[in-house]
Every structure is written in C-alpha cells, then in structure tokens.
Amino acid sequence: MYDVEEIRRDFPILNRKIGDRRLVYLDNAATSQKPRRVMQALTDHYEQHNANIHRGAHRLAEEATAAYEEARQRVARFLGAPHTTGLIFTRGTTESINLVAHAWGRRFLREGDEVVLTEAEHHSNLVPWQLAAKATGARLRFIPILEDGTLDMEEAERLIGARTRLVGCIQASNVLATINPVERLAELAHDAGALMLVDGAQSAPHVPVDVEAHGCDFYACSGHKMLGPTGVGVLWGKPEILEDMDPFLGGGEMIREVHLDHSTWNDLPYKFEAGTMNIAQAIGLGAAVDYLDGLGMQNVRDHERHLGEYAYRRLSEIEGITLYGPKRDRTGLVSFSLPDVHPHDLSQLLDDEGVAIRSGHHCAQPLMRRLGVVATARASFYVYNTEEEVDVLVEALVRAREFFGAFSGAKP
Amino acid sequence: MMRELYTQVIMDHYQRPRNRGELEDADLEEHLLNPLCGDELTVYAKLRDGKVADVKFDGRGCSISQASASMMTERLMGKSREEAEAEISHFKAMMVGEERFPEMDDLAALKGVIQYPSRIKCATLAWTAFQQGLESKR
Known about the structure:
The complex is a heterodimer.
Chain A: H1 4-8, E1 17-18, E2 21-22, E3 24-25, H2 36-49, H3 59-78, E4 87-90, H4 93-108, E5 114-118, H5 127-136, E6 139-143, H6 153-159, E7 164-170, H7 182-191, E8 195-199, H8 211-214, E9 218-222, E10 233-237, H9 239-244, E11 255-258, E12 263-265, H10 279-295, H11 297-316, E13 322-323, E14 333-337, H12 343-351, E15 355-356, E16 358-360, H13 365-371, E17 376-380, H14 387-408
Parallel strand pairs in A: 3-15, 5-6, 5-7, 7-8, 8-9
Antiparallel strand pairs in A: 1-2, 4-10, 9-10, 11-12, 13-14, 14-17, 16-17
Helix pairs in contact in A: 2-10, 3-10, 4-5, 10-11, 11-14
Chain B: H1 2-5, H2 8-15, E1 28-33, E2 40-48, E3 51-60, H3 63-76, H4 81-95, H5 117-136
Antiparallel strand pairs in B: 1-2, 2-3
C-alpha cells in the first residue's frame, strides 16, 4: 500500500513554510528532496566512519570502504546491473556522459563516423558529443520528434545505419514527459554494430530500470534527482567496452603501477574513479536507492503516472494554456505555457504562494527552438506529491493570471 | 510582496511597450540571450552626430526584461553617446545596489527587482545589449 502521507513524514523539508504558506515543491526534475534516511547516512558516515577508502588498514578506512562498496552493490542492483564491475560512481549524469564521450568517443570515433542523438536531448547528452565530434571529425545526427513529442521512429530507422557508432538518447524527457523506446533504439543500434547510451537522469528516479533488459551499453544517471545527495551519479557500462576505453581522469586510485614515464590502469570500476571520490555522497545514494526499493519502483511509477495525468487534466481546463508532450504514457511532469504570463513571471508569482516550479529552457535549447518557445513553465512531481498539491498549483495559476490581467484591464 | 515587484509602471511598460519592433538601417544592432531563462532580445539604434537618434527593441521575455527594455529606449533616446554610456553604467550599478534609484522616475519601479537576484539579469538584459552594441561601434 503506497501511503503518500506516511512518505511525506520522511521528508522534513516538506514542513517548510514559504512566507505563511506551506511549501508545495514541484521542481523535482531539477532536484528531489531527501528523506531523513539519506541525511542520516551522511551524518553517520561523518560522525562514525569517516576515512579515505581503498587505502589504509585502519578500522575507519575498512568501514568507509565497506560502506562505499555496499552502496555500489545497492545501486547496481537497483539499475538491474548484473554485477558491480561496470558500475562507476561519477559526479552526476553530465560527468558520466562526458566520460563516455571522452574515453570512448575520442578513442574510437573517426572522421565520417556518426553519433545519432535526438532533438529532445538535455544539453548534457548533446554538448559532450559536440566536443567529441569536433575533436574526431565525427558527425552528429538527430532523430526528430513528432508533434506530440514522441520520437519519429521511422526516421530513426533511416538514420541509424552503417556509419553509426553510437546512439544516445534520454530515456525520459525533462520537458515533454515522454518515455522513449530505448529498447527498440538499442536493437537498431546493435543491428548497425553501434553502441547504445541511455541518459537516465529523468528515468532512473521514476521508472523501474533494467540496464540489461533495455539493451544499454552505457547508462547514466544522477543521485540528487533520486532522493540522493548532490555530487554523486552513476555510469554503468558493459565491462568489455569499459576495458577497451582510455581512462577519463588520471590520478590516484585509477592506477595499478606508476612509473615516471608511464602507468598501467587499475581494474574496473576503479580505472574510472580517479582521486578521492564523493564517499559520503555515494553512501547517501545507496541509502536513497534503498528507500526507493522499499517503496517499490513500480509503485512509484504508478503514483507519478496518476499525478502526471491528473495534473495534465486539471491544467488543460485552464483556457488558452499550451501543454507539451503526449497525452498518454507520460512521466510525472507537465510543461506548459500561458499566452499572457511569461513562465519566469509565473514562477515568481507562484513562489509567492509557496509553490516551487521551474521556468526556462530546461537545458534543452534545441528542443525549445523545435517547440517554437524560448521558455516554458514546468511542474514536476515525485514520490511525496499529492493531488491536493496539484490543485494548489492550478488555483495559484488562475490567480497569477488574474493578477496580470488586472493590469491590462482585460479579462484574462 | 508581489505588489512591490510587479508595479503599475512595470506592467504598463510590459503590456504597452514603447519603441518596440525592428529598426531598419540601424547603425547598432545587438542580440543578447539570457542563458538562465532563454529570454532573447535585440536592441537597435541609429546614431547621428554622436547622438542616439532612434532606438528600438524586439524580442521575447518576461515582464521585467521587456519593461526594462521599454524604459531604456525612452531613457536613451536623444542622448549623446557618452551620456548613454553613463546612463547604462548608472542603471547597472543601481541594479546591484551600488547606487541609489532616483525617486521620481519610471526606473524607480525596477527597485523591487533587487530583492530577487535571479531576476536582475532580466532587468539588465537590454542595457547590456546596448552597452555591447556601443562598444562594438568604437
């Protein structure tokens, strides 16, 4: 039984007041709030076990190493990874994709090769590939989106071919609320002899993930969007591919033997974990996925699908509103715009009522251009949001419109 | 609280912008994007005998950026280049709290923006565009 009121009690920040209003936090696609258990894991680490990991034979070092490696196991299990060998801790999705674009892309891409992405990518799965393409002479191609925001799969079949070396795609859109058919894209990629990279920043927190079943060669996600601390994220990669890649960052821990003129690399995943990692944060992420496992990711998905559909329905009642993305099979977020109130003004007016939403281009400028807007407003939901909060949002929107309408003297 | 930010003057300039649109044969044309929110704005000006003979702005953005652009066009129209540069520096200094707002002036309506650091860039967008345009005309 999914009891949202019970879940809310695990998140102290939800008691926060903004002015005299209760906080209604609807900016979860930017970052999620943290349950007490995650904060406790950080505190426990620093109060009881703090030491550097994988070096030192004292008690604290052993304990910190064990906790860090246990977090790796939990996260691997959470993502459906068969083992921890390919599970690399990073700073977040952005760093994970940069790692691949650098350590795989610059090593293996050649002039004339193609990397196929989509029009709806977050900048984090676009800019690293622009850099890699510039360095190697490879070319980027883009699967277009259809009017409803879903991918044009016919065009995808045409684009993915003999020249393709890698297909990269967001599993879920941070603007359109679409869930992309990454399994099918992986099939197309593999048939063409290419690799499949899935950007899971907006999916790992919200839907059951199984990197093997999805057919991923690489999967990237961020801890802070899935109840974990900032500063930690994940790259999962197939070990045989990671083995062939160059290291990303050089330094401590990622080496086996260092001479003055050359070095050899540590085993996976340590080859890609240079320097002292964000140890406490990784342990915190372990606690976060534990919490999500406790809720059950299918339950989380069902809860958010319901909220997303409810919000879509309630918002569509507002006259003149534009809602982006498909009507069905949405994740728990809704991007929208009103003809008479700019998203930036809207989020400011909503803030006055304690409602936190996002406005802007959502780090997806090419997609904004494709949609013909410079910015949208976005409400994004998570495990602790309720229908009542959606109602508060809708009422606040109506009032914001009235406020702006009052100045023009016209009926909003 | 919102009444302090969204004053009558700002909303008037937003909903009835002055000098909005493209300017043909402009001597100065500067396009600027606010990377935080995606707002984009272009300012145009004609410079004659060292003076701002005409100035317009175009673009899409929030009430603060649009109203501020509208106010700027009124403010800089007819000013000499040096005066315009001084006005812009003065305005930007006001927006970061380094100089006082004039009491009896449309610009004073933007005072409330200072309390919202994320919006200051909106208010200064047009002014920065004009400043950059002038600099490139040196």
